[in-house]
Amino acid sequence: MSDAIALLEHILAANALLTAFAFVGVVMWISAALSRYLTLGRIHGSAIAIIIGLALAFGGGVWSGGKNGLSDIPMLSGIGIMGGAMLRDFAIVATAFEVDVVRARQAGAIGATALVLGTILPFIVGALVAYAFGYRDAISLTTIGAGAVTYIVGPVTGAALGASSAVMALSIATGVFKAVLVMIGTPFVAKAIGLNNPRSAMVFGGLMGTVSGVSAGLAATDRRLVPYGALTATFHTGLGCLVAPSLFFLGVRAIMG
Questions:
Q1: What is the pLDDT of residues 118-135, one digit of tens each?
Q2: Cβ atoms of 244 and 142 closer than 8 Å
Q3: Angle (CA) 238 198 31, round 5°
Q4: What is the pTM of this model?
Q5: Cβ atoms within 10 Å of 5's Cβ, excluding its own
Q6: Measured distance CA(76)–CA(25) in Å, rounded
Q7: Which of 63, 96, 182, 192 is the most buried (most CB within 10 A)?
Q8: Domain coordinates in residue numbering, the chain
Q9: Alpha-carbon distances, residue 206 vs 32, 116, 134, 220, 240 (angstroms)
């Protein structure tokens, strides 16, 4: 029996990336089942999957004593590759190929305005919350504020400014919390805000900014709107990575002295 288990572990570790895809597939299947039968579809499976993923990452880190969560376990090391920047960015870019260019142009100036406001307003809110919790240095305030833009912008900004690992972790947690809120809340508010066409989806994506949150929320509302919301949300992430460690940091430093 022990030999069979050792052989299985060796096979899984030798095919780490395939194992990672299979493992994530099982998690998504469980999440979809929980969404359908436990919440009756009110909470999208992607939101449940993120919560399960965070719990597994914590448990894997505690069990292995490492710093990379589940990927510290040899047979699940492929998760570190699958969850890396290359495949993540490929998945984000791939969503844009479903966009109808004619409809995308309809967003026009409103979409651009939403993109700018969706970058500035969350940053201000995040920086104010960080200030309320006792952070006074410009680097920490900027990093946590950037995390409120998206959980990708936060660590990118922190790395550029030399923020501490604790502050960068807080920025990621802030962005993940925002993403989960958007995932869960979108189906409930969609009717009230007229979220039922490509133009409104692009404006929504620009305002919310989080690609994962917007994509999952729109998938639970109307999957045909996902590419349009994801398109502006993707630009939102890029814009945040440009302005947060530069213009926003200079502004915060000027205010804080």
A1: 889 999 999 999 999 888
A2: yes
A3: 75
A4: 0.69
A5: 9
A6: 13
A7: 182
A8: 2-83, 101-256
A9: 27, 8, 30, 18, 11
